[in-house]
């Protein structure tokens, strides 16, 4: 009898090792060119399970997002380049965001999720959750606030630094997260479960 098997796709990002820290100015020109440190093949949460050439155009967002990663001995750096429908911002600055029946509500935002164990047994309340809002605020939490019946969130006391800039229909974000806040000792290699999600309010995607 043949052993059971399954076919899947592994999404993997490699952090480029930095000799000089990234300057947080929302200018991507100082990021190192490292194979495997970028991601751009994003799918809508509502996408079908098809992979490769079987994916339908309806599974993909209308506006492109690129994500980049890098690290030095003490920090993890994540950058995002998000195409947007409009550049001018009319929203008030702040750090308010919400879900409605698990669907994001509110203005444009990026959410970074970290699983420091990678054992596949985490609850939403175990994850490290960083929300970066286009209005200029951010929220750092342990857990994803999906409602008390599903998952609760509590403050994550982390010294997050970030910068964003908009120009010519592109929203760029650079952020620096201390690795120690994710349980990674200085200078040590690490494998982290990591996910990037973006909510595009104009496209409702």
Helix-strand blueprint:
Elements: E1 16-17, E2 38-39, E3 65-71, E4 75-83, E5 98-100, E6 103-105, E7 109-115, E8 128-133, E9 138-142, E10 154-155, E11 161-167, E12 170-178, E13 193-199
Parallel strand pairs: 1-3
Antiparallel strand pairs: 2-3, 3-4, 4-12, 5-6, 7-8, 7-13, 8-9, 9-10, 11-12
Features:
205 residues; mainly beta; five-stranded antiparallel beta sheet; globular
Low-pLDDT runs: none
Give the termini distance in whole angstroms.
45 Å
Q: What class do helices, strands and sheet pairing give?
A: mainly beta
Mean pLDDT across all amino acids:
84
Gyration radius from CA atoms, angstroms: 18 Å
**How would a textbook summarize the main sheet?**
6 strands, mixed
Shape annotation: globular
Task: Please estimate the helix content.
Answer: under 10%
Q: How many alpha or pi helices? A: 0
Q: What is the strand tally?
A: 13
What is the string of SSEs from the N terminus onward? EEEEEEEEEEEEE
Strand content: 25-35%
